[in-house]
Design goal:
Helices cover about 45% and strands about 15% of the residues. It is built from 10 helices and 10 strands. By secondary structure, it is of the alpha/beta class. It is globular. Its cofactor is pyridoxal 5'-phosphate.
Length: about 325
């Protein structure tokens, strides 16, 4: 695959494990977990794959500043800031919303990123602001490299194109000729790379892909995924991806007792730390729709440890306050 000839900064430890879990949570029995929460760089997560190619491309192009669109809880932006710091690249992160209570944002700043806010609650304002900032820095003599949110570009998606080969190999090791893969979708770069990689490797007929959109209506993000998958495949020397895939709406899986139970059960039964932004929503969707999927089912855990920590700390603090005893231990 042409992937071998693209610049790459080696950060993660791959392949990540594929783990069988007999009983992850109600509705999630006999499940295979692709553990991209264990990618081996910093706090892990699937975006380590993306950072490897985005950072390498920026270095190849002689950039001195990365301008990234990333929300306060962006795992990708934080990982990028950490990886860039070791290589002498400045990072300017353009965010939206509020800076309060986000561990990922604190990590970005600790790694040396300069963070600016658009003053808007609209996610789209990040992309606009980051492009404008990159243009301004370029006019001032800097060598900026613009990075869209989540690293959802053909270059960034190459990280998951490589993951497709891991998936096929691990299925073969278990003598599984076919499978359905379910994964959470935000910016869409990961699923686009997976679609491209399966097609380029000649395995498009072995895997069905179900993406669970956690932040935007499926019909809004689906065309972006299809376009990115096509451009990624072309970058790798292939044609239009033919893997069967669909995008479903997982936005309803927000905070509540059901989400709390799933988070607790996943942690106790498998050691999986499920974050509320991506994985809890996707797993709740899977629990409700598992019977309609072709078996075996692989759930692709994307990480999100920092967002999970945010939630656990907040829950613990609220439980202590609610108990009325500051010195007492609470069990959320």
């Amino acid at each position: 695959m042409a992937l071998d000839h693209l610049p790459r900064v080696q950060l993660g430890l791959f392949p990540t494990p594929m783990q069988h879990v007999a009983d992850l949570a109600p509705g999630l029995q006999d499940l295979l977990l692709k553990r991209d929460d264990l990618t081996g760089f910093a706090w892990g997560g699937n975006k380590v794959r993306t950072v490897e190619f985005v950072l390498a491309d920026a270095l190849e192009r002689g950039a001195d500043t990365l301008v990234v669109a990333g929300g306060p809880g962006s795992n990708f932006a934080a990982l990028l800031a950490v990886a860039a710091a070791a290589r002498g690249l400045a990072v300017r992160q353009v965010s939206y919303g509020s800076p309060r209570g986000a561990a990922a944002l604190a990590v970005s700043k600790r790694a040396g990123a300069e963070v600016v806010f658009t003053g808007s609650d609209d996610r789209q304002s990040m992309e606009v602001g980051a492009r404008e900032l990159a243009e301004r820095l370029g006019a001032e003599g800097a060598r900026p490299y613009f990075v869209p949110r989540g690293g959802a570009s053909p270059v960034g998606a190459c990280g998951f194109a490589g993951a497709a080969a891991e998936l096929v190999s691990q299925l073969a090791e278990r003598n599984l000729p076919r499978a359905t893969v379910v994964l959470p979708v935000g910016s869409g770069g990961s699923i686009a790379g997976l679609l491209a990689g399966l097609g380029v490797n000649g395995h498009a007929d072995r895997v069905d892909i179900v993406g669970v959109s956690v932040s935007r209506p499926p019909d809004e993000v689906e065309p972006c995924i299809a376009a990115c998958a096509l451009e990624t495949a072309r970058l790798l020397g292939g044609g239009e991806p033919s893997t069967r895939w669909r995008l479903v709406d997982g936005r309803a899986g927000g905070p509540g007792p059901e989400a709390d139970r799933l988070t607790r059960d996943a942690l106790r039964h498998s050691g999986l730390v499920a974050d509320p932004v991506y994985n809890v929503k996707a797993l709740l969707w899977l629990a409700d729709h598992r019977a309609a999927l072709r078996e075996p089912t692989v759930y692709w855990s994307t990480g999100g440890a920092l967002a999970a920590a945010d939630t656990l700390i907040t829950t613990f603090a609220e439980a202590r306050i609610g108990s009325g005893a500051v010195g007492a231990e609470a069990n959320p």
